[in-house]
């Protein structure tokens, strides 16, 4: 099974440079093409209805040329020259532009650079990476920091139908990069209800383990199911991330 082209969203930042290097490395391992795409805001779109359309179009072309030059200069020392030669620069919002490019290319993987946004920054401008993850149907890899060799792949899953395709994709990726794969499932503690007999945690743990092996078809050599206990309650994502750090 082939992956399809690898599409990388870039904005000239060090994070996007790292994403481009990682995407290029994955593309070479998969014998696929890698494409860079950059989105620049269409500042002249509001003038299209009231101004001279030809003048607006010329200004937009100039804006694209300036954006292309800026991105190439920012990434020239860290990204392969052949990637910059085919850099795709478009007008529009980042999330929409990246997804359009992925759809047109028939991409098998989207690679984006991860940045740390404050709560205020996310509230005001949002996070392009998060917006893509929430809306795209293409697998997304968020690269954090400088690219290094991928040695381990940790998959956090529950017991829904979404677990199976998630694990299958992780297995493909782990084989591609030669990494070890581990599947992690976090067991929510049972609530204490009045007049309801309390189930022994060990029995509950064993019951879920049995469902995991029989109902979901997971390979036991990859699995790591961990019960979580204690009074402090957190969201599922926070609990999974914390357990993931301990498991990796």
Description:
There is one protein chain. With 248 residues, the chain is of the alpha/beta class. It folds into 2 domains: 6-143, 3-Layer(aba) Sandwich (Rossmann fold); 152-247, HUPs (Rossmann fold, 3-Layer(aba) Sandwich). Helix content is 46%, strand content 17%. It contains 9 helices and 8 strands. It has a 5-stranded parallel beta sheet, with helices on both faces. The chain has a 3-stranded parallel beta sheet with strand order 6-7-8. Mean pLDDT is 78; it is low at 227-245.
Unreliable sequence segments: 227-245
| Helix and strand run | EHEHHEHEHHEEHEHEH
Question: How much helical structure, as a percent, in the residues?
Answer: 40-55%
CATH architecture of the largest domain: 3-Layer(aba) Sandwich
Largest sheet properties: 5 strands, parallel
Say which CATH homologous superfamily of the largest domain is assigned.
HUPs
Specify the number of helices.
9
And the CATH topology of the largest domain?
Rossmann fold
Percentage of residues in strands: 15-25%
Give the tally of structural domains: 2
Tell the overall outline: elongated
**Which CATH C-level class of the largest domain is it?**
Alpha Beta
User: Roughly how many Å is the radius of gyration?
Assistant: 22 Å
Question: How many strand segments?
Answer: 8
Q: Distance between the terminal alpha carbons, to the nearest Å?
A: 28 Å
Q: Averaged pLDDT, please?
A: 78
Spatial strand order of the main sheet: 3-2-1-4-5
Q: How would you classify the helix and strand content by structural class? A: alpha/beta
């Amino acid at each position: 099974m082939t992956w399809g082209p690898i599409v990388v969203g870039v904005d000239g930042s060090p994070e996007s440079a790292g994403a481009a290097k990682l995407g290029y490395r994955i593309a070479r391992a998969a014998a696929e093409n890698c494409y860079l795409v950059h989105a620049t805001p269409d500042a002249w779109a509001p003038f299209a209805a009231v101004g001279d359309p030809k003048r607006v179009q010329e200004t937009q072309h100039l804006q694209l040329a300036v954006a292309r030059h800026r991105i190439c200069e920012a990434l020239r020392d860290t990204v392969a020259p052949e990637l910059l030669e085919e850099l795709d620069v478009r007008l529009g919002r980042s999330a929409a532009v990246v997804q359009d490019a992925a759809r047109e290319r028939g991409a098998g993987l989207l690679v984006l650079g991860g940045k740390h946004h404050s709560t205020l920054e996310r509230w005001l401008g949002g996070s392009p990476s998060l917006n893509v993850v929430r809306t795209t149907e293409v697998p997304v890899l968020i690269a954090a920091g400088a690219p290094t060799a991928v040695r381990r792949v940790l998959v956090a899953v529950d017991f829904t139908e979404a677990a199976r395709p998630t694990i299958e994709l992780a297995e493909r990726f782990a084989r591609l990069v030669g990494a070890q794969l581990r599947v992690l499932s976090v067991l929510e503690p049972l609530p204490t209800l009045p007049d309801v007999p309390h189930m022994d945690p060990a029995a509950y743990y064993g019951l879920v383990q049995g469902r995991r092996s029989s109902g979901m078809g997971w390979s036991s050599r990859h699995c790591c199911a961990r019960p979580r206990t204690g009074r402090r309650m957190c969201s599922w994502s926070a609990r999974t991330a914390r357990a993931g750090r301990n498991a990796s």
